[in-house]
Amino acid sequence: MVNPKAYLAPEVFAKDVKKTPTRNGYGEGLVIAGEKNPNVVVLCADLSESTRSEYFQKKFPERFVEVGVAEQNMASLAAGMALAGKVPFISSYATFSPGRNNEQIRTTIALNDVNVKIGGAHAGISVGPDGATHQALEDIALMRVMPNMRVIYPCDAIEAKKATAAAAEIEWPVYIRLAREATPVITTEKTPFKFGKAEIFWQGKDLPAQAGVTIIASGPLLYEALLAASKLQKQGISAEVINNHTIKPLDQKTILASVRKTRVVVTVEEHQVAGGMGSAVVEMLAKNFPVPVEMIGVQDRYGESGKPDELLEAFGLTAKYIIQAVKRALRRKR
Amino acid sequence: MGRFGIIGELIPFMAKKQYSLQELDKIANEIRQDIIRMLLEAGSGHSAGPLGMADVFTALYFAVMNHDPKNPDWEERDRLILSNGHICPVRYAAMARAGYFPLEELKTLRKFGSRLQGHPERKKLPGVETTSGPLGSGLSQAAGMAYVAKYIDKKNWRVFCAMSDGEQEAGQTWEAAMFAGKNKLNNLTGIIDRNNIQIDGYVEDIMPLEPLRAKYEAFNWNVIEIDGHNIEEIIDACSQAKATQEKPTCIIAHTIPGKGVSFMENKFEWHGKPPKPEEAKTALRELRAIGVKITGIRE
User: Fold this and answer.
1) Least Cα separation, residue A130 to chain B (angstroms)
2) Domain limits for position B113
3) Record's InterPro entries (chain A) (predicted)?
């Protein structure tokens, strides 16, 4: 059942669940951050409309900097601005930032340890018709291996808004992963969001431990994980679904507490399984509490054009595949 | 006003000493000797670039920049970004001579636990301003700082960015040049070490930059070409940059790589290696014999 303390949207399982892109939440979060802190500045590389940084541009034109198609310059400009006391957010598509400008982020932001936030939109294959060039599937891996960098992957637009506003208050470099497509609004304003703190969104019923599983999801696919959990419940399988919005630093405490009960894990994300959120979980579990894990994600291939729904289905990322993974995982349970 | 209040504002003006050109030449010569000793001790590092830029760094730290070695975080200070981080021995030596840290510490260059990293790191050494090494990203950072000073905080501090000529081959340099030109960052001064060497050979063979002046002018920069070993010319060029409205200034400093050490001068082979003990001895003897004045590139 839904964790009552998560205050999820009441209509989350309805057919007409409200859908909004997480990038909208980013734009709203930028405005909140800008209102709160006069040092917040936003840079954009010719994508102000589609990254929603235009929300900030309209409100604070004097603190908005258009850099043109120059993501490498944007990253290092932001580093310079942070060194001069500002809190810069750089906005582009994730394939370009943190993709194209990866070394600039490494040297001038992460190693330099300056207070720059990176908003990477259009992450995942659900970008759809634009195809593989614009579907970032490696960005979590690129960002989480960098010392000093923090990584957040919000599950919906409301959480993206909270995460963006929260990022402005963390004195670390932060990467915020965002999606293009309108995705279900899972949370409400009342849903708790604390940077670094994973939340249990679906609680397992008191079933025999043998039929329990922990599903750890990040980003909009959390919705598919919740659908899977509700279907599994009807089949007598008790799932605990964790919204793992902060990939770095990982909330070991919450994850381990759940896994110690269930002793089996399925991870869910719209990213390469290599190096992504699931990898982060597996690395942590291998050290602390090794259990069988099944990983839902993109299996070492690039995306392609198509409708978002078609692609999620073709790449095996929907509730149906999560349920199959849970059953595989349960069979491996020791 | 900075967080040190009115006293903090006044310190640099009280402390700023006026050096004669002869004194500046002497400091540059001492810095060259420091560089040789540091590299010998380190057993690795770059020789040609640091020696070639000794006069520019002397001019910046001892005559041009508004800064306070005892208060490296002073908010109103001028900022110097070293984009080609590999020539950091010249920056470290100039900083030590200016009083940022004891001269003795220069011996720790490139050693485990040292604040003097092989390529400069902001978090290790106060006054270094930024972490650099990978070429082509300094001008962007300098432009970001200059943008904040000019448009957001409306401050009078200036930004200098020392670059190599080799890194003019990097696309990001031109992204930054375009940004600075568009935004009329007249508080930004780029200084290119035009020594015509890079690791693999002569710059004009590897990837010709000429006409370099015209390139920067086309990007809406003010360009001044100088003899990078004539301290008076360096200081004058920085003054002209300060007086320039509506445009960033690019100072193309023509230098001789390895300047001051006869067997290193103009040899790209000395880009990335340190002197051996015998070579260091010869180099130091030569520098002491020169005494004070380094000849300019046209002499």
Assistant:
1) 26
2) 17-290
3) PDH/Transketolase, THDP-binding, Transketo_C/PFOR_II, Transketolase-like_Pyr-bd, Transketolase_BS, Transketolase_C
